[in-house]
Amino acid sequence: MNKVWLISGTSTGLGRLMTERLLERGDRVIATLRRTEALRSLQTRYGDQLHVLPMELTDTAEVRSTVAQAFAWAGKVDVVVSNAGFGLFGAAEELSDAQIARQIATNLTGSIQFIRAVIPFLRAQGGGRIMQVSSEGGQIAYPNFSLYHASKWGIEGFIEAVAQEVAAFGIDFIIAEPGPTETNFGTSLDQAEAMSCYEHTASGKMREALASGDFKITGDAVKTVEVMIACAEEQQPPLRLPLGSTAFFNIRQALKDRLLALEAEEKRACSTDR
Hints:
Layout: E1 4-8, H1 13-24, E2 28-33, H2 40-46, E3 50-54, H3 60-74, E4 79-82, E5 88-89, H4 97-124, E6 128-133, H5 146-166, E7 171-178, E8 190-191, H6 202-212, H7 221-232, E9 240-243, H8 245-264, H9 266-270
Parallel strand pairs: 1-2, 1-4, 2-3, 4-6, 5-8, 6-7, 7-9
């Protein structure tokens, strides 16, 4: 049976690929994005199967209005995909206040408000599924991506809590965590102006690796989207979905290291009990 999907951030990257794949197989898609002309060719090809709505994720009133329009058009939405976001690159000291504010407003606050906006409609229809596109960067950290990581660690914590709150309403979550994937993410990074004092630090090395192409991109975008769609249709999907070998092994190692560090502090931690 064909499904109805509501997807944010559909102009490029994984959101665009997911929209295309779902339309190809006959599903209906409500696609939100800032510049609707980016989907004009798909709209012409698929007609009423695709409903395109403008949405600025940092405008909470607009997010709520767009979500209401989406559910009014569809009647029922099976899967919501919170995908919109971007990357901010630079050492924390290099970033401007405006860059920091925009990163948090889009990736964190915007995603939170989008999810908050869809929950009442999913609850009213008896349940539904929300997939948040996070990143391996929601569980690990690279230098020069501090604010990006703050947004991804933040949204993952938000979802862990909200998933418990809404489970009784038949609403569940998937957190998709792609590793470095062949999309336009790297070319669309908002990059801070480099400070010379960071040239020979981990920050400088990361900047050089990105500029030279030495930063390995192992993920295939098409395969990534196919797995995301398949997982979204499982009866009992995992809360977290690592995507790509880089993501899997990086996250696994980070969790092992954190567990070892935690266990080393057992005595000191327990010593503070009453």
